[in-house]
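step 3/5: co-fold with glutamine
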Amino acid sequence: MKPLPAASAWTRSKPPLLRFLDNCLSEFSAETSGHVADYIPELGKADPAYFGISLATLDGHVYEVGDSRVPFTIQSMSKPFVFALALDLLGAGRVESAIGVEPSGDPFNSIRLNSENHPFNPMVNAGAIACTGLIYDSKGAEAFEQIRLALSRFAGRDLAVDEAVYASESQTGDRNRAIAYLLKTNAVISDNVAGVLDVYFRQCAVLVTARDIAVMAATLANRGINPVTGEQVLSAYAISRTLSVMTSSGMYDYAGEWIYRIGIPAKSGVGGGILAALPARLGLGSYSPRLDKHGNSVRGIKVCEALSSHYDLHMLNRSDDARNAVIADYDIGKSPSRRVRRPQEREILAAHEQEVRIIELVGTLSLSAVDYVSRRLAGRPRPQFVIFDLHRVTSTTRAGARLVAEAFEELAALNVTVVLSGVRRASKEWNTLREWTAELKNVRDFYLLDTAIEWAEDQIVYRYGGSIDFHETTELAEQPLLAGLSEEELTDLASLCTIRTYQSGAKILASGDPADALYFLRSGAVHVTLPDGIRLATLTAGMAFGEMALLEQTRSADVFADMAAAAFVVPLKDFERFRKQHPRASECIMRNLAQLLADRLIVANAKVDILTAT
Ligand code: GLN
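step 4/5: write tokens
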């Protein structure tokens, strides 16, 4: 095995995909078979040595090697984009009734029509001329500009026309003229054959680079959103139908072989370009003018073959494990909220711990992921509350969102409340989901998972007859930390305390301050937070805070009043004096403290365990 590169070499090294494209470039440059197209005389002038490759990812990164910025004419690679444009401009019904979607098995310039005297599909010349004709019918003199603008939006920059190539094809394109007249006699295009052909020849002469083609392909692979500009260029419907015809007919009479071997929807042009769009993954553009007998770039095909086989990208060779979507699944017995509960509340929650179920999800909520989650839920005792934590969910497919809505409906019928946490309010997924669940009364959401769990716990406490009274006042005797102290000891301790009151929101303790007093919450609620904002605990009347002063000299967390609160406060030096005078009480307190800390540790361990075990 080769030694790993030194650290400095590694930081300067190329990303592996770029290295892969480099290797393709050097390896396939040796390939000199094929011929530059010259039936359009101006195309024959192209330098056969040109070779450029570019790959665009769906997060908008563009890799480029070789002559990736050399302009050449788009030719037939314009066909998928113009078809997609026609679908959106004129409506699918109109376009689909004029042009078929069956592979012809014929060369690109075949003059044969199907049994209805319509073009076989929009990827061969007859279908493409018909498509342009439909746009011309509706837009007239504006037609070409509309097409040029659409192509430009796919590329993310303004594209121009190679006037020489346009003029050259316009003078010599008699075969296309013949096709257009045939379409006219069959009423596929209207009268103005010359006008339609003029637009078609111009659209074929639009100048692009391998880089442009990669971005255009990536836009197709990304449901019509240009990953570089972020623009939704055309509808997802038009894009998916376009990819469909690219799959069956994009490579002319080599289409079957292409999809069998390479398995990536693609389109070629006689200018030497190949465009390949792998849905949800990437877009590839290559430029090398020598063509094989089908009119496809020889080196371009080699690049696509290498990409598909090296990275195993055949689109029909995929799998997915929906179980990865669930990273944790537990109930409040295993991992309660951070709210420190009083004994009565704790008892109720312990008796009903299975009634609040928490499922933490990750990644994309796809059809299979949501189906898997719904079966997991059905397989166990039915909880009253199901909390779905979506902090780590990055997206939802439409199928996933549909299934989520249906699952929520099912849960509503069973009187199960659904609580969502971690939903970013502005996200598209949230809006779709909200639209579909608008009628449901059983869906709540809280941004923080802990808040969601705390809320569900409160509901369980209420449902089983408990009460949560933040305004009740508790005495020192009710403090778990002081359990076991005699009346006399408690009276002595009380004489050392002062009662302090705090307004809602007040900062009671600040991390970094000297830890010089203990606090026994008499009424209200406070929360303990780390300086970075992580909430450690919510405490209510009857609980101690700042008790860590017994173990450490500086405060490690902030404490805020959640509402108006009052506390008995004992300065540490007085408390230490009290402990000396009452050794039995002191031992009690330290044992209670050890118990409280142990309880906290058990909860913390359970939380770590949940995330590492699932
Ligand atoms: N303009 C060319 C033609 O119609 C496009 C053909 C192609 O790229 N395959 O002949």
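step 5/5: annotate
The two ends are 35 Å apart (CA to CA).
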